[in-house]
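Feature request, filed as a ticket because there's no other form

It would be nice if the structure record came with a short human-readable summary line next to the C-alpha cells. Right now we just get the raw output. Example of a typical job, pasted below so the devs can see what we mean:
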Amino acid sequence: MDRKIFVGFILTLFIVLFIPFYWFKEPSRQREAAAKQFQTLQEEGALVFQVNCANCHGQRGEGLMGPALRETQLDEDALIKVISRGRNARPISMPAWGEADGGPLSQRQIEDVAAFIANWDDNALKEAEERLARAAHAAPPSEEARDVEEGKTLFVRHGCAICHGTGGGGGPAVAFSLEGRTPDAISRIVRQPQNLMPAFSPERLNDIDLLKIIAYLEEIQIQDSLTPMAQEGKTHYEKQGCAACHGSDGKGGPVVAFSIAGLPGNTIYRTVRAPKALMPRYSTEQLSQQDLEKIIAFIASIKSTVSPSPTPSAPAGPSPTPSAPASSGEGKTLFANKGCAGCHGPNAEGGIGPSLKGRKGEQITAAVRNGKGIMPAFTQAQVSDSELQSIIAFIETLP
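Raw output as currently delivered:
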C-alpha cells in the first residue's frame, strides 16, 4: 500500500510540475509553428508574384507598366479583390486573374500573393527566384524517343558513325564533327557531299530515314545537357502541342507563333496562363503548375544548346509508298505527335484551327499538302501518305 501511495505521489508531482511547464512553452511553440507556416505562405506567394506579376510590377515590386507594390497601402482584402477582378486604369488596365473571372489563378494562389505583397519579404522573393532557377540544374537524362532511337540505328547502319563518331562529334577517321549543323546543312552534306564522303541518294537513304538521322543528331546534343526535369518538360512541351507553333526547339514554328527560346520563366508562365492573340489559354486543369515548370526547364535548357534552324525539310526525292492500311489508333497518336492537336484540339474539336469533325478525307489531304490560311503545308517527309491516311481514319471515327 505504501508503495502505491508513493507511486501516486510521484505521478501527481510530475503532473503538477509538467502542466505549468507545458503551458509556459506552448505559446512559444505555437508562435514558432505560425511563423514557419507564414514563411511557407510567403514563399508560395512570392513564387506566384515572380511568375505572374513581375512583368508589369517589376522583379522587386518597384513598378514598371503597373504601379509599385513594395509599399502598397492596400490591405490583403483589397489586394485579393483587385487581383481577382482586375482593374480599369489608364494608361494600362489590369486583367482579371481569378479563375471565377476567367483568369489563370486559383483562390489559394491569389490569397498567397496578396499576403506576400501586403507583407513584402525580399528573402521569400529570393527563394522563389532560386526555386525557378533550380528547374534547369540536375543530372543528365538517359531516355530517348523512338524516332531518335531509329535515327541512331540508321546512323550506325549506314556507316556514318565510322567516320563521324557515334554521336556525330567526329570519329577516328577524317570526317568532321556534325555538332551544331542545321538540318538543311546535314541534308546537303548527305545528298551533295564534298571531299571523300560518298553521296547518299534517296534510293539509298530515303527522306524519312534521313530526317530520323537528323533528329538523332539534334537530340543527342540536347540530351547531353538536359536535366531530368527538363526532359519531362520536353515530353509535356510536345504533348501539349507547343512545338506545332513554337517549333521543336522553341525558336518559332511554321505558323504564326514567335520564338520563346531565351524568354524568362515568368514571361512564359504569363504567356501560357494569360495569352494574347491566337494562342489558347491553358488552365491549371489542362496544364498543372508543376508540369508548366518542367516545360520552362526544358526551354531554359535548350536555349544554349540548340542552334537556330528552320523546320527540317527533306531534299527532293521519291516519297515512300504506303505499305500498311490506315489505323485510327495510330492516327490518334500521329494527330498528337505531328502537332495537329495543338491547333485543332486533342479530339479535332477545334481550337486555334477549325473543328475537323465531319471533314472528308480529300479536304483534309488538300489542307495538309497545300496549307490553308495560317496552316502550313506538310511535305511527304514531314507527314507521309500512310501517316496522313491514319490521321484521316482517326478523324473519321470521331462522333
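Something like this underneath would help us a lot:
The domain at 328-396 is CATH 1.10.760.10 (Cytochrome Bc1 Complex; Chain D, domain 2).
The radius of gyration is 29 Å.
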